[in-house]
Amino acid sequence: MTAVEHPARDGTGGPGGPAVRVPFPVVDEVARHCLQEEEPETVHIEVHLPGRLDPARLTAAFTEALRRHPRVLMREAAGPWYRRRYEWELTPEPDVRVVSFPPPSRDALRTARTRALQEAPPLSASPPIRLEVVQGAGPAVGSEATDAVGGSGPERTPDGHRETADGHRAPARKGTVLFLTINHTALDGPACLRVLATAAELYEGRDNTPSAPPVRTPDTPEPAPGKAPSTWTPPARVAPGSPEASPGNGLIVTELGVPRRPKGSPYTVNDQLMAATALMVAHWNREHGARPRPLRITMPVDDRPRGADMPIGNGTRLVEVTFAPEEVDASRMGELLRRTATRTRALKSADRPQLGHGAALLTAPVVPVAWRAAATRSLRRAAGPWTSTVLLSNIGRIPYALDFGEEAGRARAVWFSAPARTPRGLTVTTASTAGRLHLALRWSRSLLGHGDGAHLRDLFEHYLHATQEREATGG
Q1: Cβ pair 28, 182 in contact under 8 A
Q2: Both ends of the chain: CA-CA distance in Å?
Q3: How many CA atoms does the CB half-sphere of 189 hold within 13 Å?
Q4: 88 has which bridge partners?
Q5: For residues 402 and 207, is the Cβ–Cβ distance under 8 A?
Q6: CB-based contacts of 475, cutoff 8 Å, min separation 6
Q7: Domain extents for the chain?
Q8: Are 26 and 355 contacting, i.e. CB atoms less than 8 angstroms apart?
Q9: Spelled out in words, what is the top-level CATH class assigned to the domain 21-212+221-473?
Q10: What is the mean pLDDT of residues 446-455?
Q11: For the segment 328-337, what is each residue's pLDDT rounded down to a tens digit?
């Protein structure tokens, strides 16, 4: 959705006045129609700090940050079945305790990740987010090892090495991990990261003004041969691996180097990530005997400013990049990257509603919202075969320092993950902090298992490295 401007700066109708209500925008309404308990629509943000935070100061700073971004302080308003819209009710204060400090333990990091994927903050209480602060949680915090939700397996430390066969890890440090869990029906990751940046500034009084975005090459890339497949063609699905019996999502995170690219290249790092994602899925499907079909990758585009006045809500629009099977060829990497750059740039510049014109028509308030909900769910099931193959959400370089002062320090790693419901069943989310790329793979357990996630991670790393080899500059 394009985030809704708040009618009153304090998020209410004023002292003693009635609560302000805001109709659900298109994205919120569609998400609300399609909620499932088995696979909650949560966004998880994980921020690693080298030191420790004072609980009382952090709670006060985060609560004040919520007040300064009142569009976060909201809950779903009750209404009769025949109402024409869902509405958000803005509140002056949180309804529930938002910040919590679970006791330190060896499994605290894994437990917090699991909770972020399995338990969505309710829409009935303001705000629909929560912040868990894991302090001194042992080696997993200090080494930032990549515990996976849904199984045990090899873990990677920030330098890319796995733990040894005997399970040895780096000594524990007194670090802190902030877990933000967001109900994606209401808000998205970049909006809540903006709130956290405000909290960091209030906590320590240090400047968290967003850095300027990187300068992009203004020239349009030379078109590569090949026309994108029709969007009316059902795309490939991620081939099933070893699904797990338990419902929900699995997750694995890792840290890689930001891919290099030659100076003046017509493609961006985002295009390299797109190419690596396409090659990863194509390789996986070949290994599992899937018939070649066009790959379609959903890519969120976010044009909002990152300053204190950033519109809060679900502010991204979704575009889809499609590749024919013969185009996804690592031996023709230069051609693949140029083709990707041409298509992504054209899609980013197109003027299009967030979910397309059909969604805007479907959510028009001409009949009761309960009727529209039933129609939306039916259409979503019918459109399942045309759902994209995979979602790639590249947050890009984190624009905020997220500096919590001398004791806690500045963020050294930030991971995001997006929901991974079937029929898509797999999302790839990336962000860069301190010159490193932080990758999260999230999947539906009805499609893949933990070992599958680890293999997909290795494939992604392999093909991302291939995008920066010398051959990538050629045809």
Answers
A1: no
A2: 39
A3: 26
A4: 22, 76
A5: no
A6: 332, 334, 335
A7: 21-212+221-473
A8: yes
A9: alpha beta
A10: 96
A11: 999 999 999 9
